[in-house]
């Protein structure tokens, strides 16, 4: 039994012991307020620094969302954010991106820490409220101009509250480039509307995206294709990648909307490049395929996420952590300017 589950049982015992529901709710609200204050103050600190330095139109700010309980198979992605940060700064490579951006420059990259997901769940807060907390945390980062959030998952369920927050903050839909082995567009996978396999159904239902391009798809069911047609999704499957490569390496997105959101599920990559994922699907993109798509993309990127790294399945030398870190570095270079 997980720690969050134990606390849910404890809360039921409190209720059975006639502890007033209002008292329990008051405690939960204090945890929520403290969690949001943590993100707010860190974002304010980074925003003030960048505004004082001047000359920054957009700056990437890391926000960790260590959530794994909406995974349908393994919950290891909850442990990913600290492993990705460790790999970014491990010293085995320099701090310059391929396009020459210097990550040690706070005008390029800052970090506001993690949303304390486990502590929030420990006090019995359900997923409806939890998703709102994730959205509110993203909004707090975006309110501190010029910060733009690059969210470290976590499983793919986090993309829904993150995209919702981005769209609501900017006042309209965005275009989304989604790299993944799976379309994650089930209506409610295994009965869970917040499943990591249903995040893009929630996004499209909410009207938070105008265009959704899904690249790297190679594990898709009839429902996945039907849902794709229902929402007008542009699904690029790996079986036709050689034919589609020229299109995907010359994308121009975001015209007429509030910007572009990029979501990278690490299992978009062939497991030869990223074995540390929960759902291993052979026949995926090479790392250079992904980097070429990102480098050549013409877009104003307003936010992004890197999700579904599972440290519990990584190689001993942390190969997938380094892959995730490299993706973060190159996404940072695209966002910051």
If you had to describe this structure to a student in words, what would you say it looks like?
- This is Arginase 1, mitochondrial.
- Its cofactor is Mn(2+).
- It catalyses: L-arginine + H2O = urea + L-ornithine.
- This protein has helices at 3-16, 21-53, 80-88, 117-122, 127-142, 159-170, 199-205, 222-231, 241-248, 287-296, 319-335, and strands spanning 59-65, 109-114, 147-153, 174-179, 209-217, 234-237, 260-265, 301-307.
- With 337 residues, the chain is α/β, with parallel strands linked by helices.
- It has an 8-stranded parallel sheet with strand order 2-1-3-8-7-4-5-6, with helices on both faces.
Cα distance spanning the termini: 46 Å
Mean pLDDT: 94
Helix content: 40-55%
Instruction: Classify the beta-strand content into a percent band.
Output: 15-25%
Number of helices: 11
Structural class: alpha/beta
Question: For the CA atoms, what is the radius of gyration?
Answer: 19 Å
Low-confidence stretches: none
H-E string: HHEHEHHEHEHEHEHEHEH
Biggest sheet features: 8 strands, parallel
Envelope shape: globular
The neighbouring-strand order within the major sheet is 2-1-3-8-7-4-5-6
* E-strand count: 8
Cofactor: Mn(2+)
Family: Belongs to the arginase family. Agmatinase subfamily.
GO biological process, one term: putrescine biosynthetic process from arginine, via agmatine
Keywords: Arginine metabolism, Hydrolase, Manganese, Metal-binding
């Amino acid at each position: 039994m997980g720690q969050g589950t134990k606390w849910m049982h404890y809360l039921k015992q409190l209720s059975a012991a006639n502890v007033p529901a209002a008292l329990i709710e008051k405690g939960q609200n204090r945890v929520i307020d403290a969690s949001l204050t943590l993100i707010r103050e860190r974002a304010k600190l980074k925003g003030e620094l960048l505004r004082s330095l001047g000359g920054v139109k957009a700056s990437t700010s890391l926000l960790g969302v260590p959530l794994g309980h909406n995974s349908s198979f393994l919950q290891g992605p909850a442990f990913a954010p600290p492993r990705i940060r460790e790999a970014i700064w491990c010293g085995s490579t320099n701090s310059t991106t391929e396009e020459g951006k210097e990550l040690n420059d706070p005008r390029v990259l800052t970090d506001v820490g993690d949303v304390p997901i486990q502590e929030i769940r420990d006090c019995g807060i359900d997923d409806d409220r939890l998703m709102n907390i994730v959205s509110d945390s993203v909004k707090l980062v975006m309110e501190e101009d010029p910060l733009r959030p690059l969210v470290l998952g976590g499983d793919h369920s986090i993309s829904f509250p993150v995209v919702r927050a981005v769209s609501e903050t900017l006042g309209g839909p965005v275009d989304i480039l989604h790299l993944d082995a799976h379309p994650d567009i089930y209506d409610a996978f295994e009965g869970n509307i917040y499943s990591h396999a249903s995040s893009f159904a929630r996004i499209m239902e909410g009207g938070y995206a105008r265009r959704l391009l899904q690249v790297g798809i190679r594990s898709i069911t009839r429902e996945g294709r039907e849902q794709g047609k229902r929402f007008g999704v542009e699904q690029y499957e790996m079986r036709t990648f050689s034919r589609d490569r020229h299109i995907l390496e010359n994308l121009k997105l975001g015209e007429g909307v509030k910007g572009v959101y990029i979501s990278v599920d690490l299992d978009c990559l062939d497991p030869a490049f990223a074995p540390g994922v929960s759902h291993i699907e052979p026949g995926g993109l090479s790392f250079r395929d992904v980097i070429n798509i990102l480098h050549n993309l013409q877009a104003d990127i307003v936010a992004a996420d890197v999700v579904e790294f599972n440290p519990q399945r990584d190689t001993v030398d942390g190969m997938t952590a380094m892959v995730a870190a490299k993706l973060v570095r190159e996404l940072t270079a695209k966002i910051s300017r």
